[in-house]
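TODO from last week: model Lysosomal dipeptide transporter MFSD1.
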Amino acid sequence: MNSARSWLVWSVAVFAYLVAVLQRSSLGVAAVDASAKFDISASQLSTLAVLQLVVYAALQVPVGVLLDRVGPRALIIFGAALMGLGQVAVALAPEFSVAIAGRMLVGAGDAFTFISVLRLLSLWFEGRVLPQVSQWTGNIGQLGQILSAVPFVWILHGYGWMSAFLSAAAMAVLALVLTALVVRNGRDDSWRPEQKQNWKTAMQQLRDALRRPGTQLGFWSHFTTQSPGSMFALLWGFPLMVNGLGYDTSTASSLLTLFIVSAIVIGPILGILTARFPLRRSNLVLTVIALTALAWAVVLLWPTQPPFWLIVVLIVVLGVGGPGSLISFEFAREFNPMRSHGSATGFVNVGGFVATFVMMFLVGVSLDLIDRHGVIDGGEGGLYSWGAFRLAFLVQYLVLAVGVVGIVRARRRTRRQMHTDEGIEVAPLWVVVSRVLKRRGH
Ligand SMILES: N[C@@H](Cc1c[nH]cn1)C(=O)NCC(=O)O
């Protein structure tokens, strides 16, 4: 554990995840080319993107169950193979339906990667370093978005559609080969399910994992921390900045890069805090959510168009949501027996994606309603004016409120269970702070 070999295995696993993020984000940056190549409308294009994410989210729980049976190594390899095949299909697609099938394969392969890589960590690391490694894993993986925004786009525009997607497929093959050569399920690679399993016991294990308050705490934490940033980065951030605020596309792209850089810088700090204060992880999650809600409130309530520096602050804060969301997986790991880690992690991961879809959808519907009923005078911006975005983005607060209620309720039940099972009492943060102040004679 925590050896030089652990770090070698980790770097290959992170590379496999980074390559999965590259495959996932390669369609977004090729959107205009895809519309021209297949002669499709904007809604057909968004179907392509959404279907891929739906496949990803729908497979999380089944992949989690499988993970508890077969271990992470085989699944990372299988995922890379599916993504490679999918990208080859997209590269060679003579018509739109083949591209859809290809992107669905990419979504399926992607679904195998992240939770398997997370599962691998606890086979190679232990102790305080584990939350930090988990932060590094999630955040370094996001650099895959930069790979698709820069070298992938360069190949796409220099050498064409087929070369770009075949290069992406080649990266998946490289991840597959490196994983097969280097990654093992622990030192002796002797993965065995903790108890003999058939599908009936696996299903029972899944039900038990879903019922545990700690798993639910993870689900609601992921639901609430991941969604504002993902909704912004994956769909509405670009139109908001370009159409709503009038930034040019290169400024908007740089701001989206800042979103990733913010996560990479803040992730290790959150990793240290979670390792140092394990009983305060939900407070950290709630702080991240409060900061997000506050940053949006200042932007949306700004009397005129918000200044550039404020949008920069907003994006830095939104970037913290990614590292914040990684804390959710620690709840899954800590409050479940080893044999259910895969199922619990898969379920927790679903939370963030469900909330992201809901937010994306609600913002879209709100923009349409505002436009159709002439709620505000959007001026030249019309459907995507700053005034319209300002109202539509308020729907985020609905999703955040549902998530916060979920966190508070699940946390209460988790703490009650910790008290019953282990005699650990976790006092509310304000009680602890006032005790410390009193002790220091304030
Ligand atoms: N919340 C993300 C991970 C993350 C870290 N920093 C920014 N995002 C997550 O759950 N990802 C799942 C995946 O498959 O990428």
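Done. The CA atoms of residues 229 and 318 lie 5 Å apart.
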